[in-house]
Design a protein that fits this description.
With about 300 residues, this protein is an alpha+beta fold. It folds into two domains: about 110 residues, Probable inorganic polyphosphate/atp-NAD kinase, domain 1 (Rossmann fold); about 170 residues, Tumour Suppressor Smad4, CATH 2.60.200.40. About 35% of the residues lie in helices and about 30% in strands. It is built from ten helices and 14 strands. The strands form three sheets. Strands 3, 4, 5, 6, 7, 8, 11, 12, 13 and 14 form a ten-stranded antiparallel beta sheet that branches. Strands 1-2 form a two-stranded parallel sheet. The protein has a two-stranded antiparallel sheet with strand order 9-10. α2 runs parallel beside α3 and α6 packs across α8. The longest helix is centred in the middle third of the chain and has 15 residues. It is globular and about 55 Å long. The two termini are about 15 Å apart.
């Protein structure tokens, strides 16, 4: 993201709208800026940033009348691409402006975990440990992108995650307990993430107008990981029916309790270790600008 690109985007937005620019300077700043915008009656907060910045802004806007629009400014841009936006920010700006002209603003449901909203997913266990390793190399993230995630995944599997024992139990509303999970992801939307241009599908039932979906895995053996990943690059059907996985959808709430502390991440932002997570689905929590999907959204 260059300063020239930011200037082009601001000029495009300001052609037909009154625009005030605010730049984030620290962790959590986007939440406070968004809260301030909502308090002063701003119609729309357009967020140019990565998934972590979008998550912060959504937490500041949830429950207000101010809408949020997403522009891709990070390394992966899962949420913006899930909305069908082009991965090039200037092209995405044109799509957002068209949506604003058409009044394409919709109330969407969000997930919440221990009181924090999430837009697309919360990862637990191995998934969060990978994100932690990526963040330790944050200086490379902008340039290395997906190769860094691949390296972090392999490095975490080999050296940075205890694969000798299950880390937590998933307590489901029907009384079922998956008590030997090593990895789990709770999805509010699909896909789970992107591998380059390819989406990874674990929870196709996860949509804004349904409850949460949770996929958990009871093994981190290399054959199991390769099988699940290969399936997720397609429809994900075999991953969801794998003998060592458990998949549930349209959940209003559930809990995850650790066998000791376990790591978790929210919308790609590593948040440390906890011993319990409480998940809830919050319908119509956020007003969202929803552009028409672009054919180049995965580019």
């Amino acid at each position: 993201m260059t300063s020239r690109t930011r200037v082009v985007i601001r000029k495009a937005l300001a052609a037909d709208h009154h625009v005030e620019l605010a730049e984030t300077s620290r962790r959590g700043h986007a939440t406070r800026l968004a809260q301030g915008a909502a308090a002063t009656g701003t119609d729309v907060v357009v967020v140019l940033g990565g998934d972590g910045t979008l998550n912060e802004a959504a937490n500041g806007l949830a429950g207000s009348d101010t809408a949020m629009a997403a522009l891709p400014g990070g390394s992966t841009n899962v949420f913006a691409r899930t909305l069908g936006l082009p991965n090039e920010p200037v092209d995405a700006t044109a799509a957002v402006l068209e949506a604003l002209d058409e009044g394409a603003i919709t109330g969407v449901g969000l997930g919440s975990v221990n009181g924090r909203y999430f837009l697309f997913h919360t990862g637990m266990g191995f998934d969060a440990a990978v994100v932690s390793q990526v963040e330790r190399r944050s200086g490379l993230k902008r340039y290395a992108g997906h190769p860094l995630y691949f390296y972090a995944t392999m490095s975490t599997w080999r050296r940075h995650y205890d694969r000798s024992r299950p880390r937590f139990a998933v307590h489901l509303p029907d009384g079922t307990v998956v008590d030997d999970a090593y990895f789990a992801v709770c999805c509010n939307t699909d896909p789970y993430t992107f591998m380059g241009k390819r989406p990874l599908h674990l929870a196709p039932d996860a949509t804004f107008d349904k409850g949460l979906a949770v996929f958990s895995l009871r093994s981190l053996s290399l054959p199991t990981i390769l099988s699940v990943t290969a399936s997720a690059l397609g429809s994900g059907r075999r991953a969801r029916s794998h003998r060592l996985s458990d998949y549930r959808s349209d959940l209003s709430s559930f809990r995850v309790r650790g066998h000791g502390p376990f790591p978790y991440q929210v919308d790609g932002d590593y948040l440390g270790e906890v011993e319990e997570l409480v998940f809830r689905h919050q319908p119509d929590a956020l007003r969202l600008v929803t552009p028409a999907p672009s054919s180049s959204s995965n580019g």
